[in-house]
Design goal:
This protein has helices at 3-6, 39-45, 51-55, 61-77, 86-117, 125-139, 185-197, 224-244; strands at residues 16-17, 26-28, 34-36, 48-49, 145-152, 156-164, 167-174, 204-211, 217-221. With 250 residues, the chain is an alpha+beta fold.
């Protein structure tokens, strides 16, 4: 049995928020050192799980497909070394796949950070212009609030990429052709949770895909039926998370 399967739920780390909406991703342990916040800490200090933590209770087909493809590509491009055992070869493939995934995440994080700061002078300035142009074309000229965090009395917290009165938008970076992209179930659950978390249950919601390979962006808006379905699904995942971790749902 793998290490993660043997871990008790209460020791697993995640993103948590204080009731005032401030992030509590880390905590000072009894040894005086900073560490990741766990479910046990959340239970002790009354912290709320993040939207992304709740979403991880369900399968993410798009992410799993990408991870499998990444692993297969590593296997195809890494030649087997003379005398290398099956176990060593597999471990080397896994390490390479993880390294490639980390590079992709790092670049996505950098682009995301540039958009958050509206950095039009850095290396991703054109990506920023493309992203904000796409969002402007969708919602028009708005007074946007970036990286706004919240805590909901319904029992969860989160941090939004972009929000304004009546509008919620989340950025996703990708190396795929933007024209062929679609929305995944995670998207409707995430955005539905965000708009309810901000107490804007009727807000219009969208995903803004930003290319990591060229300065292009595309906004896809979710319709009301999708968002209502996403909210039903999110509440079910929220109830499961609280029950599985022996927490009391507000």
């Amino acid at each position: 049995m793998s290490a993660i399967l043997k871990d008790d739920f209460a020791t697993q780390a995640g993103h948590f928020y204080a009731p005032d909406g401030s992030p509590r991703y880390t905590i000072i342990g009894k040894n005086g050192k900073e560490r990741n916040t766990t479910v046990r800490d959340a239970r002790e200090h009354g912290l709320l799980p993040s939207v992304t933590t709740i979403l991880r209770q369900a399968a993410a087909p798009g992410l799993e497909k990408w991870k499998i493809g990444n692993a297969i590509m590593s296997a195809l491009t890494l030649a087997r070394q003379e005398g290398e055992s099956d176990e060593d070869y597999i471990n080397r493939i896994v390490r390479d796949s993880n390294e490639q995934a980390a590079k992709a995440r790092d670049k996505g994080t950098e682009i995301h950070g540039a958009i958050e700061k509206l950095d039009r002078h850095g290396p991703y300035s054109l990506h920023v212009d493309a992203a904000m142009g796409a969002v402007g074309g969708w919602a028009g000229l708005m007074d946007w609030d970036a990286e706004r965090s919240f805590a909901s009395p319904l029992g969860f917290g989160g941090k939004l990429d972009l929000s304004a009165t009546g509008f919620v938008c989340d950025f996703k970076t990708t190396d795929k052709d933007l024209a062929g992209l679609k929305l995944w179930p995670d998207h409707r659950r995430q955005l539905a949770a965000y708009r309810h978390g901000l107490d804007m249950p009727e807000a219009r919601c969208s995903i803004c895909y930003v290319s990591s390979t060229k300065p292009e962006a595309r906004v896809i808006e979710l319709d009301e039926a999708e968002l209502k379905q996403g909210w039903t699904e999110f509440r079910a995942l929220l109830a499961f998370y609280y029950a599985a971790n022996k927490l009391e749902l507000p």
